[in-house]
Amino acid sequence: MPRIRHTTLTCSPGCTVEATLELFGGKWKALILYHLFEDGVLRFGEFRRRMPNVTQRMLTNQLRELEADGLISRTVFPEVPPRVEYELTDLGKTLKPVIQALKKWGDRYAHALQGRETGT
Amino acid sequence: MPRIRHTTLTCSPGCTVEATLELFGGKWKALILYHLFEDGVLRFGEFRRRMPNVTQRMLTNQLRELEADGLISRTVFPEVPPRVEYELTDLGKTLKPVIQALKKWGDRYAHALQGRETGT
DNA sequence: GCCACTAGTGTCAGGAATGATACCATGCCG
DNA sequence: CGGCATGGTATCATTCCTGACACTAGTGGC
């Protein structure tokens, strides 16, 4: 369900920039990663509480895609009621500086984002 | 034409991450910015040559959106044939660490992006 | 006159991304 | 037995994004 991926990373010198962006360019992926960096481990329901305006379906989707990309791991505990924990993989953890850079910029230049269409 | 923007940056602590991403989350925006960081000033046609698989319409679109967001400036020279130059604004230049972080990650972990659907 | 060049714009269409809503299994609690 | 909790799925609809293609203006060159 993500956009088309780059396979040959030779299309242009900046191609890897695009390719990286495709990994967490999904509408909520960066937010998911951000919360994982903050909290370490999160259950499905905790994500829901932290991101109330994301539908269950979208959340599942984005989590699965992040998992498929090897950025997060999903652990199911065979309990009732079910428990599923998500956490960053080693690869996912390497994204920390990237997310941090995004956050830092956003915090500093948030004013540049104002005055747009209505959003969340 | 971009996705819905955040106006109140209070939806969640990581909201600014998403908001920042919306600025250059467009399919080709990061690439445009990247080339501008590399070359400083670029004409429309130079973008086309650097990004051959982007249609003219998309390129115009993405450039206009970046301009509307105050990240790049567009200077028209009243000549024939017409000449239009694009360059980063001061605000746009502040994104450099972010783009660099993306590039750095992509270059290092490109292997994690392999084996996906066909792309460019 | 005819063609080329640059930097676009207009229109249309297809597909992907997203959202709303309803539904499921299991086991505990009362 | 009924209801609740968790972590999902399934289906459908819609909206948004993206691309293909054709077309434009003004001038220079042949």
UniProtKB/TrEMBL annotation, chains A, B:
Record-linked SUPFAM superfamilies: Winged helix' DNA-binding domain
Keyword line: DNA-binding, Transcription, Transcription regulation
Keyword DNA-binding: yes
InterPro entries in UniProt: HTH_HxlR, WH-like_DNA-bd_sf, WH_DNA-bd_sf
Domain of life: Bacteria
Chain ranges of the HTH hxlR-type domain: 15-114
Entry protein name: Transcriptional regulator
Organism of this sequence: Acetobacter musti
